[in-house]
Amino acid sequence: MNDLAPLLTPEGRALLDEVRGTAPADELAVATRLRRDHPAPLVSAALAQARLRQRAVAKFGTEDAHRMFFTPHGVEQSTRASVAAYRAARLTELGVTSVADLCCGIGGDAIALARAGIRVLAVDRDPATAATARANADALGLAGLIEVREADVTEVDTSGHDAVFVDPARRGGRGRIFDPEAYSPPLSWAVAAARTARVAALKIAPGVPHEAVPADAEAEWISDHGDVKEAVLWFGTEPGAVRATLLPGPRALRGAGLPDPPVRPLGRYLYEPDGAVIRAHLVADVAAELDGGLLDATIAYVTADTLRPTPYATAYEITDQLPFNVKRLKALLRERGVGVLTVKKRGSAVEPEELRRKVKPQGPNAATVFLTRVAGAPTMLIGGPAAV
Which residues face 205 on adjacent strands? Predict the structure, then answer.
């Protein structure tokens, strides 16, 4: 990111302020105008950074995103600020005062840690990424707590820190990497590094196989507003524990090691567990809380006869259970004047948009249809959100 240094100059910063909020359709006209008074490469760099900042708002919020600096990869891979803040708070509760942040990227986690009062050594081997992390620490007034070092994380001495945090790269030239040993650095190296510290946290993909979780680690799956964001392996906490953490909150469901829930007929209510609960294999814990069971042994929908509020699943009241049949669904929706149709699926090959095109919903009312399996049979469940 050779474009970064010019952007840190007074001229570059002023230009960034000027191009803030530029719409894609206006970029050419804005660039043409600004190039009359500024070098063309600097104008291009400012507009590119403005685009990255606009993308980063979803993760970092408007105020921080428009003060920070980003790389395309950094925007994509950085931790959402709410998740990073939660992790920093947990480390603080564990008595951590200093962290070696390995594979720090553009510094999202380092920023959250520093704001929690934790001293951070942020390490990344990519020169452009390390420079961006350093610029962000300075831009947010955290340079006194964050030391950014350009180095290979496998060669860094972390012994002077209370905790280690590792966020291995999970993308390569061909896209997302699913094999933990193909991470950079590999998960096995990260686990070994974690075991050298009093406390450690390893950020991994939420789809990691449960059998890949070391016996001496706690495994935590985190969602934010219902979207699963990551899994974390914790060392120095509760070996063997499994939990699903939901943000905002946080609300944490700790696994009790329950057997699979029973399969039972559809009750009045259908519960859709949060994605973190599903990834953590804690559907049985939610079913027990709701005194419910599964519609199908292979589908993570819980059904129950009574409505009970729970933060770990969304409740729907079901009015109809039908074998899968598009014509029958279309007739039912027309009869009820349903024009706003939410389609959810689990265990069905039918795409929601395809179904909407076929049934052509029209009318003032709303409904939700679940495309799923009940005792192995393709089924449609019709209803709507339950009033808790």
Answer: none
Q: What is the 3-state composition of the chain as percent helix, strand, coil, each rounded to the nearest 5?
A: 35, 30, 35
pLDDT digits (tens, 9 = 90+) for 97-141: 999 999 999 999 999 999 999 999 999 999 999 999 999 999 999
The three-state secondary structure class of 365 is strand
Residue 384 contacts residue 361 (beta carbons within 8 Å): no
Q: What is the CA radius of gyration of the chain?
A: 25
The tokens for 308 are: 């009970």
Using DSSP's 3-state secondary structure scheme, residue 110 falls into: helix
Dihedral sign (CA 80, 86, 89, 93)? negative
* Cis amide leading into 185 (omega within 30): yes
Bridge partners (DSSP) listed for residue 243: 220, 254
Is residue 1 over pLDDT 50? no
Q: b vs e for 219-241, b when ≥16 Cβ sit within 10 Å of the residue's Cβ? A: bbbbbbeeebbbbbbbbbbeeee
The predicted-structure confidence for 320-338, as pLDDT tens digits, reads as follows 999 999 999 999 999 999 9
Angle at 140 between CA 136 and CA 144, to 5 degrees: 90
* Residues recorded for the chain: 388
Other CB atoms within a 10 A radius of the CB of residue 154 amount to 13
Tokens of 30: 């804005």
d(CA 77, CA 287): 34
Q: What is the pTM of this model?
A: 0.92
Per-residue pLDDT, 170:
72
Nearest partner of 300 among 193, 218, 382, 372, judged by Cα: 372
CB 74, CB 106: distance < 8 Å: yes
- The separation between CA 128 and the C-alpha centre of its own chain, rounded to angstroms, equals 24
Please give the single-letter amino acid code of residue 139: A
